[in-house]
Design brief:
The complex is a heterodimer of chains A (277) and B (364).
Chain A: H1 12-23, H2 49-62, H3 82-86, H4 109-115, H5 133-144, E1 159-163, E2 169-170, E3 176-181, E4 195-199, E5 208-210, E6 218-222, E7 230-236, E8 264-270
Parallel strand pairs in A: 2-8
Antiparallel strand pairs in A: 1-3, 3-6, 4-7, 5-6, 7-8
Helix pairs in contact in A: 2-5
Chain B: H1 2-16, H2 27-33, H3 37-40, H4 52-62, E1 77-79, E2 82-96, E3 103-120, E4 124-133, E5 138-149, E6 153-160, H5 174-179, E7 187-196, E8 199-206, E9 220-228, E10 232-241, E11 248-259, E12 262-273, E13 281-295, E14 298-308, E15 318-327, E16 333-343, E17 354-363
Antiparallel strand pairs in B: 1-2, 2-3, 2-17, 3-4, 4-5, 5-6, 6-7, 7-8, 8-9, 9-10, 10-11, 11-12, 12-13, 13-14, 14-15, 15-16, 16-17
Classes of the chains: A alpha+beta (277), B mainly beta (364).
Chain lengths: 277, 364
Amino acid sequence: MIIQFNKLLPSRGIFGLSVLMLASCTAGDGTGLDAGGRPITPGPPANNDFQQIQATIFTPSCTGCHAGANAPQGLRLDAGNSYALLVNVASSEVPSLLRVNPGNPDNSYLVRKIQGNASVGARMPLGGPPLTQAQIDLVRGWIAAGAPSSAAPVDQLRVASTIPAATEQAAAGLSKVTVIFNNDVDSSLVSSNSFELRDASDRLVKAEMRVPAGRQNVVELITPQPLAAGSYQLSVLGDGPAPLADEGGRVLDGDADGKPGGDLLIPFDVKEEGSFR
Amino acid sequence: MNGVKNLVRLTAALALFAAAGAVQAEPYLAAQMGLKCAQCHVNPTGGGMRTVFGNTYAQTTLAARRLGGEEDLWTGQVMKFLSVGGNARANFNYTDVPNQDTTNEFAVEEARAYLDFGVIPNRLSVYIDQRFAPGSATNLEANIRYWITENSIYVKAGRMYLPFGYRFEDDNAFVRQLSGINMQAPDEGVEFGFETGAWSTQFALSNGTAGAPEADEGKQISARTEYAASVWRVGVSALSNDTDAGDRFGAGLFGAYRLGPVTLLGEVDYFDDDSIGTGGRKLMGSLVEADWKVLQGHNLKLTYEWLEPDDDVDEDEQTRTSVLYEWSPIQFVQLRGGVRFYDGIPQNDQQNRTQAFLQLHGFF
């Protein structure tokens, strides 16, 4: 049987009615919903920067596209997935950048993407208005503070990330190594008993250690001269006579075995001047 | 006298729609002409590089007038086995978000180049779609297309835009957001196509990761079929993505109808997505569009869109209304301007913004 599709031509009336039906759908009035369009549920308010970023930026502005299995570049920004897919995860568009590089907002793909830096493609939100400077500053501040997932008390003091990261090849001229913790550290314990920087010959490299003002979860090791090209190892010590601890007295869990104590070893290289990867 | 009337008509339209965004709903051109997408694009699902017919149409029919002589007709074929094409869009954008300062900016929306190596003419092609701006160069399509039988059955493999609904180039259209299939998120896989008579059918099997590396064993199936008569057309789409994060199923209905100088398009999509939230969501989106060919080279476009982000939640729907004017004074050049009104829940300022744009669009 041959189907005569032209005989099935819909009348103008039917087509017009369909158009009218589609056009009659209107916007919701938002009753009982939060800014993200989700039903308001009783619960504690956002208690740290990340929760605030989720509630005021990701959920209302990003999850229209960045949600579910077909989220662009696999980046799901809904509340259940955003942190795990952002922090210390390489960007799929620019793999040399981490989406969120804790402690390093300028080298975070997320920041470049919302700022509109030309090196990372189209600014986000795509096709929408740019985020306000206050929103961008909130994201930058959260990353600069080490991108903590929660402000709630932690059971153990751990290293969240370091700059340079483990096995990273840092650019020539490096004179600062940054260690970011998951909680504020007891600055009186920041000393050569808790941090060691050694070169490839296992010689101790002299460095001043400091906790930057207002960033109690960060320790910086400043060398008097830029580090020469070569291999280095940073040790953050959870064992020894005066191991590092947080302000609650919890000793560093350096080996991440869930118990206080243990050292964290971070090997990295410094490239030669003018060298390329 | 007619010239004065036309000038007044155009001035009034531009005044109304003065001032960013991107609106590229080219399917109306196919519906207006009663043709299939494959008539004007080397990609049978539309978009990207134009065929010899598509380039000729742009020079002789789309534009208000044509500069140059017959010998200057651009076909895209720069060598016997190589065709090139491209798109560049430079915008001036204006955005007004409630409770925020208004913003305006000049921006390069995109600059793309297309290469099609017709290694075996009309049978085997290697196709590349590379975006050069904004940002660093990004490959969006790279595939091999083989016509098993000339102009009727093909197989395509590599990176590609997937078949689903109408391929509006406005990636911010609600129906494009909903499906996640747009010109920003190609996928890698294989597509089979059938172009027979008035029918155009595609079936694709892909990673289902929207450009990200594959993370599980599940794959995505997407398909569309359309029947294009001279005055009307109708089609259906379906999508199923099996992922560890949850299964996702979608279906859509789309069509167009030509009423003299006015072409109407519509699309309705429904998705049942278990990969969102804790219990999954059911989402719907629709678009209606009217394109009025005011004069040769002049098009007035009106669109109305509706989005239901979660069928289980009341009063969360959003709409978007767009009005724009496209003027093609000469071949391969468009001046476009428009305004979009977003309407959503009052507690979300972004959902209630107004955006406007002026755009210079060059293509070949």
